Amino acid sequence: MQQPDPNKPDLNTAILKQVPVEISVSVGRARPLVHDLLRLGQDSVLALDRRVDDPVELYIGEKLIARGILEELEDAEAGYLGVRLTEIVDLPDRL
User: Fold this and answer.
1) Is residue 18 part of a domain?
2) E-assigned strands of the chain?
3) Do 23 and 65 meet the contact criterion of CB atoms below 8 Å apart?
4) Model-level pTM greater than 0.85?
5) Are strands 24-26 and 81-88 parallel, antiparallel or unpaired?
6) Residue among 28, 29, 24, 31 at smallest CA distance from 64
7) Residue 45 domain-assigned (yes or no)
8) Is residue 89 in some structural domain?
9) Residue 74's CATH number
10) Structural domain boundaries enclosing 84
11) How many domains does the chain contain in total?
């Protein structure tokens, strides 16, 4: 069997690198009682289990891949949120 040339990109790897992956960002969770949930309406505030400056978690599916802090983007993307990564989980063991 012919050994792959380490200087030539593998076609399968090149194709996989073009596949989009959806990442979800978790900013916190809430566990209201059903009674309290039924009373929620427009302008109600649902308290989460995290503070504004706590790290958020990034997931691919159910797998935690990183943590970071929320930041408001600037310039042409002003008003949008981004995540500055502060910790990367060991991906080969997690995916």
Assistant:
1) no
2) 24-26, 56-60, 63-72, 81-88
3) yes
4) no
5) unpaired
6) 24
7) yes
8) yes
9) 2.30.330.10
10) 23-94
11) 1
